[in-house]
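Reproducibility note. Readers wishing to regenerate the assembly model reported in the main text can use the exact inputs given here. Chain order matters: entities are listed in the order in which they were concatenated for prediction.
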Amino acid sequence: MTVSRVINDSGYISQETRERVEQAIAELGYIPNALARSLRFKQTRTIALILTDITNPYFTTIARGVEDVASEQGFSVIFCNTDESDREEAEYVNVLLQKQVDGLLLVPTSSTEEAIAPIREQGLPFVLLDRYIPGALVDSVRGDSLQGAYRMMQYLLGLGHRRIAVLSGPADVTTSIDRMEGARRALYDAGLALDPAQVYYGPFSLEGGYVMATQALAADPRPTAVYAMNNFIAMSTLRAAREIGLRVPEDLSVVTFDDLPAAFVAEPFLTVTEQPAYEMGQQATALLLDRLSNKGSAEPVEIILPTQLIVRKSSGPVPAT
Amino acid sequence: MTVSRVINDSGYISQETRERVEQAIAELGYIPNALARSLRFKQTRTIALILTDITNPYFTTIARGVEDVASEQGFSVIFCNTDESDREEAEYVNVLLQKQVDGLLLVPTSSTEEAIAPIREQGLPFVLLDRYIPGALVDSVRGDSLQGAYRMMQYLLGLGHRRIAVLSGPADVTTSIDRMEGARRALYDAGLALDPAQVYYGPFSLEGGYVMATQALAADPRPTAVYAMNNFIAMSTLRAAREIGLRVPEDLSVVTFDDLPAAFVAEPFLTVTEQPAYEMGQQATALLLDRLSNKGSAEPVEIILPTQLIVRKSSGPVPAT
DNA sequence: CTGTTAGCGCCTTCAG
DNA sequence: CTGAAGGCGCTAACAG
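Running the prediction on these inputs yields the following C-alpha cells for the assembly.
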C-alpha cells in the first residue's frame, strides 16, 4: 500500500519512507503491473483500430493519425487487419472485447447494423471510420465521397468525356455507394445518365482493379476515361492500359480517389480526389477519447471531412477520333 | 467455477449444467475477462512491435508480416512508433513492460546495449528487427545489408561510375554502417577507396534525403551516381535532381535500398536492392513466439535474409563528358 | 460432477 | 503517516 502511494504520489507519505521505497524500486527493478491496475479500474488505456487493408497507404496514413493522437494522450493502440472479411472482423471484435479495450475504431467490412451489434451490446464506445452504416445512430468520421465524386465527374464531363467507365469497389460498402451516387448526380445535372453497362464492381484491390480495368478497356467502343474508386484500382488501370498500348492521358484519362503519399511517387501523375486521411485518423481518435472521458452519452456525431480535387497528368481532353 | 469449466471445456460437467450455463451466457451476453485471466496466468497473448517510422512502406510491410503470423497464432499486436527518438522508445518499452506484453519486436533507434537493458533486466523475450546491436547476444532478424551494398556498388562500378555520392542514414545505426562497409569493400576490391568527401549522413527521411541530395549534387565535379541508403532518401534525390534539371539516368544514376511496393508505382523506375520485408516480419515473429513457448533459453539466433538487386531505369552508364 | 478457498497485483476504505 | 482487509474476475487445487 505504501508503495502504491509512492508510485501514484497520492496521500501522505513521510519523506523518509518515500525515499526508502524509491530506493527499493530502483534496486529491484520493480515495474507496476498495469494488468492488475486495469482489472481494478476497469480501464486499460488501450484502444483498437480495426482496418480492412493494412496494405493501403490510405489506411496506414489514417493509422498514423490514430497512433499520434492516442499516444499523446497516453493510450496504446492495437491494430487489426480484417482483409475485408466479416468473419475476421467479428473474431477481432470478440478478442478485443475480452481484452477489455477502452474503445474501438472500426472500418466496417459491411454496412449493416449486424457488424456493430456485439460492440453495442457490450456498451463499448466506438467510432466508425471511413465507412458508415446508413441509418445507424453512431459516431463516424469519413471523407466527403459524395461531393468528391460529384466534382471529379463534373471535371471529366467538362473535358468532354462521355464514355466513362466506372470501376467501383464492393457494391455494398458505403464509400462505393456514395462515390457512385455523386457521379450519378453530376451526370444528371449535366442532363446525362449513368450507363449501367459502364459500371464494374470488384474489391478495392490491385487484383480486383486489374480484372475490372481489362474488361472495361476491352469494351467497344472503348471508354475515353476511367473513374476508379480507389488508388489500387487506378494503379491497375494504368497497368492494364499500358499493356494494351494505351497512352495516358492522350488515349485514356484516369482519375481516382485517394492520393498516394508524396513519399512514394517521384513525379505525381494521377489526378485524384484526395481525402485528408491523417486528419481522419486524428479526429476519429479525438472523438473516441472524448467519449471515453465524458461518459455522458452525447448525441452521435457524424464528421465528414472535405476532399480536394488535384488535377495532374493522368487526365486530359477527349482524344480526337 | 462451473462457468469457467464450460468456457474452457475442462474437467467434468454434466450435459445439463453445461447447457444451462451456455444459455445464461447467451442471455447475458457474458464475455470472459481476458485481463483477469492474464493476471492469473501471467500471459497476455499480446506482443508489441516497436518501429522507427510507421510511414515507411518498408516498415509497414514488415508490420504486415508480423500481424499475419501473430494473429494466426492467436496473438494480438500493439504497434508503437518511435520516430527514431530513443526517448520515445524508452517510454514505450516502459509502458509495454507495465502492460505485461509477452514479447517484444524491436527496431532499435540506437545500436548500443543501453536500449535493451531494461527489457533484458525484466527478462522479457524480444527479437531485434532490421537493426542489431553489435556484440550483443540477442535474437535478431535483418536483411543482408553488407552483401546488398557490395553488389550494388559493384554494379555501379561496372557501369563505369567513379564519382559516386553516398547518401547514408544516421552514422550510428547498423544498417547505415553495414551499407557503408559493403560499399567500401566493393570499392576496395576494385582497387579504389571511398572518398570521405562524397559521403553524407542524415536521417532516413524525405527531408533528410533532400538536404543531402542537394548538397551532393551541388558539388563540383558533380557525382555521376548516387547511392542512397533507403527509399526516402532516393525519392528526394530524384526530386533534387529534377529541380536542377538533371535527367535520371542520362545525367545521373540513382540506386537505393528498399523497394516500394508494386502497388504504389505505376511504372517501376528505381534500381533497388530489395529486402524481403514481409518475410522479415514473419520470421521475427515466428522466432519470438517460439521463444515464448519453449521458454528454455536456447542460443541467440541471428537471421540474415538475402537481398536482391533489381536493375531498373534509374541507373545507366556514366554520361560521356 | 459441483462448489469452496485462495491468490494473481492493485487500490479504496478504514483502523491504528 | 502507515498498514490490514477486501474485492476486481479468473482458475488450480481441493473438498464434498
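We highlight two features of this model. The longest strand of chain A covers residues 46-51. Chain A touches chain B through 53 residues (CB under 8 Å).
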